[in-house]
Amino acid sequence: MQSKATTPQQYLDELPEERKEPINKLRQQILENLPKGMEEQMNYGMLGYVIPHSVYPDGYHCDPKLPLPFMNLASQKNFIAVYSMALYSKKELMDWFTSEYAKQCKYKLDMGKSCIRFKKINDIPFELIGELTGKIEADEWINIYETAIKNRKK
């Protein structure tokens, strides 16, 4: 569900009442752990955590007017989602996350392409998402991204 909100605060204000607390807690964890060189803004109708043009002027290859995406947080129709391509970009990060998730959560990990879905609000591992956020620095994410683009063109 893409929001038409133009600011993070507007997005938060428009959330259904039962989603406000968990989204705000996830957002707080992300912001507390967001690496230097990244910032929060609206991105694809969700809360987006990006590398802005001031740090990475090339922007996102699909649309260079957009900043380089890193992570997103969204309230979808049937779940809360955290989108993190970093999990699919570094095998050791995926291994760490899935192992830690299994230790901390009683429900099976529900993942899609770059998406971690939380259907049970009471089982969201807030601190784990914060820790995931801080696992890759901005310059490392740029290197991973540029390497993937370069390899894709070959």
From TrEMBL:
Pfam families documented for this protein: DUF1801
The UniProt record lists the YdhG-like domain at 19-132
Protein's recorded name:
DUF1801 domain-containing protein
Q: Please report the organism this UniProt entry assigns to the protein.
A: Flavivirga rizhaonensis
